[in-house]
Amino acid sequence: MKQFEPFRLDTVNGCLWRDGVQIPLPPKPFAVLEYLVDHPGRLVTHDELLDALWPETFVQPQVLRTYVLELRKLLGDDAGQPRFIQTLPKRGYCFVAAVMEARVSQPAPVSACVTKPAGFVNRSSELERLQAELNRLTQGQRRVVFITGEAGIGKTALVDAFCRPESLGQSAIVARGQCVPGVGVKEEYYPVMEALGDLCSSADGDAACRVLARIAPAWLARLGRSAETSAGAASDRMPGDLCAALEELAAAKPLILVLEDLHWADASTLNLISALAMRRAPARLMVLATCRSRSVATGHPLKALKQDLRVRRLCEELALAPLTRASVRQLVSGELKQEDLPDGLSAFVHRHSEGNPLFAIAILEHLIAQGCLACSTSDGKTTWQLRTPLDQADAGVPDELAQMVELEIERLTPLEQSVLEAGSLTAVAFSAWAVAAALEKDVAEVEELCDDLARRVHFVERAGEDELPGGNNSTFYVFAHGLYREVLYQRQAVLRRAQRHERIAHRLGILFAGRESDVAREMAMHYEAAGNWERAASALASAARNAERREAHAEAAELREQGQRMERNLKGGANGSEPKNAVKKRQGKT
Asked: Which domains does the chain have, with CATH numbers?
């Protein structure tokens, strides 16, 4: 545990604390902070940071600026008068605060009345917050709680852990409904009707049916549970009637209405939630809703609902952060049912999953399917062992995740898909000018498209502006997870992908005319990916000369070796195919 001023950096669990409160910090910004804290009081160059955090992967330096900006916001630092991270222009960064070792203190354990199912890790603070909401609920305070986070982060797992009978006992009724993409626009109140059906089929179902029959008969008729209500009345579902019925049910026993994937909900369902939240009478009624944090675009009714309830202080939000390294280790250990894991396995899974539980499990299963991770039995004991070194393992996208990502991508227009595909050509971060060059489109048009995508889809974020030669700026963006970028990269036809790489390299040469050596390495990467090894070799030679001028002799030697490899490909007569090592470098996880 490293301490600097009020902060503690937990390098074992991979998290940041301030005054006993954990600060959510994604894996890559954490890695940047950890490296700087490990090397305080000295210059850490851009190249050193990039090589340490993204080995064997070409990454543009501006992505560091994005992460440092995020760190400054979390630390309350000022770039003009830095207390923690000092920027040394065009060179790198220096961590200027005093760093000392701190005694490790354990966080408070989760309340004994909240139990965790197998495979569920590191959500103690969120479970404690939900328990606090339940305590308020039992005192007659109606509650609306949004659990938010990216796909696969564990929203449903958290709800399952909280709603387990072992946790709630017989003290509350739980009714669950699921929103389905495409269904909400065709069928009003779809998740609400599913929740009512769940309620009427529960142990408390008879009481629920009696209350609905008396106060909200049209809703009961829609469930097919009342033969006495006319067809005309069955179509007249009044939200106020259902609110009154649910409140009466909650008078006998606290009622938790769980609605999942609310970003797919219809407007009628959202209006009902608003009505339940704003009614003034006390009620032991909770709406517990899950939704993706970045799938709600401007103008989406869910965004308006959340903002309205937040302003009125009628809702709470639990935003789920990625799992820490220690939690991923715990997750892997639980999945394999083995305490002592092979060296480097949990670190590999954490790095490539970036703390996403769904991705972590899929990557683990991918390693097993490949035969990289296999089990053997000795003396009746099963042990998992590595059969292939992890640095030689194929860290491609597992089929299950690739299909999930494809479904999300296919919901976009063909033009939006092309924009994201072009963005995937430049690894971690991509600039609007590069996408425009790849697609041969106007930069301003591309920026508008990218900004719109960053507002609507959860896996792309607007990261800042990149200064180009001549004083112009171009907005750049970051893929929230490397797996999305890989799927977008691989779904492009090889010839089209090569053409786009070539256009980006050509545009780089134009933008940096007279200063090509500054971007020669990046140009070489694109030319190599395009199969144009002659130009790649020429760019690498230029980059090597530039490194020699900076007295970076080791870098220059590496660049010359890469250039010689390109020349050997030329002499061998190879043409138009993409070298495997180029693919591997670009596909390094981010």
From this structure: 2-101 (1.10.10.10), 127-319 (3.40.50.300), 339-392 (no CATH), 399-586 (no CATH)
